[in-house]
Amino acid sequence: MVKRSVLAVGVAALAGALTLVGCSSGGGEASADSILVYSPQGEGPRGEYIASHAKDALGLDVSFVSGGGGELTERLLAEKNNSQADVVLGLGEAQLNQVETAGVLADYSPAWRDLVPDAFDSGTESFTLFSQTPIVMAYNAAALGEEQAPRKWEDLAEERFANKFVFPSVTSQTGQAAVAGILWPYTDRESGEVSDVGWEMLTRILKNAVPVASGQKFDWNWVVSGEQPVVVNWLGGIETGAKDNGLDLRVVDAEGGSPFVSTGIGLVAGSDRTDAAKRFIDWFGSAEVQADFVKTTRSDTPVNPQALAQLPEAAAALTEIGKQDIDWGVVAPRMSSWLERIQLDILGG
Fold first, then answer.
1. For the whole model, what pTM was predicted?
2. For the stretch 3-28, what's the b/e string if a residue is b when 16 or more beta carbons lie within 10 angstroms of its beta carbon?
3. Same CATH topology for 3-8+135-259+324-346 and 19-132+261-319?
4. Into which CATH architecture does domain 19-132+261-319 fall?
């Protein structure tokens, strides 16, 4: 089992409640030169980068509604017949499949789509995948020895980890991906049904965890103090936490693998600024922009091979973490019912 020490790299960690982020350079009412983007990446350095560079390159004013991936998915579904957004950016593949199935997205094939490897083909023209990131466990090496650290996800169900780790909100796509990874070994590939053993495993893990509520900011002092030496998060969030807090965080290469989240971008059906939205999508997914975006903000690793060639360290980091083989086509249509059961039966509403 490889545990990689993380001392730098990354961006903000867990997404919170929905927020209208005024990152646009202009003001006043929306126009053909402005777009509204729904994205978990709308706050902080990533949103600031996108807004400022889109203004410089395209003359577009970009504003965001930012929040957890699950929350944004619910909002997109609720607004299906009265769309507010023009573009959805950075939702995970499972969430994008949900909104695509509901007819929230319009078909659009970006100029860079042919560069996306077959392994990341979304199977639809309603959205295109542009990045990937693993959801991992990590631990504070100053507070926990390697022999004491978890080796596989199921270890988090053990009594010794009670109140020793933080689990992301299940309304975030980070939390939802972690849930999917835990349940997948117990999921029937044909029916999508999870066994009782699987639900018991997830229940024990979530009962052991220190939860992060929707909208609650993650407090890295919990990890620094050693009170909660184990963290579940996306790789960039782990790397940022290490850098910002001077921590030696060791990423666990979990036995059986860890879930990887592929994120994508799509055009929202019903947008009255379609031309501007398409120009934005073509620009954002280009190799030049993707490479510079990741270099500047330490965001998720792009799947565009021309961009990836410019990011050798990010590419190498992915090879150190085993990928769990999850069929998101099976998971996506069941995620809502899984989350409902988690909220009602495990977390108590």
1. 0.80
2. bbebeebbbbbbbbebeebebbeeee
3. yes
4. 3-Layer(aba) Sandwich (3.40)
- Do the Cβ atoms of 36 and 63 come closer than 8 Å? yes
Q: Domains of the chain: which residue ranges?
A: 3-8+135-259+324-346, 19-132+261-319
* Residue pLDDT tens, the chain, 349 long: 445 444 433 223 333 346 666 554 333 344 569 999 999 999 889 999 999 999 999 999 999 999 888 889 999 999 999 999 999 999 999 899 999 999 999 999 999 999 999 989 999 999 999 999 999 999 999 999 999 999 999 999 999 999 999 898 888 889 999 999 999 999 999 999 999 999 999 999 999 998 766 667 778 999 999 999 999 999 988 988 999 999 999 999 999 999 999 999 999 999 999 999 999 999 999 999 999 999 998 889 999 999 999 999 888 888 889 999 999 889 988 988 999 999 999 998 5
251 φ, ψ to 5°? -80, 130
Q: Report domain 3-8+135-259+324-346's class.
A: alpha beta
Largest Cα–Cα distance in the chain?
Answer: 58
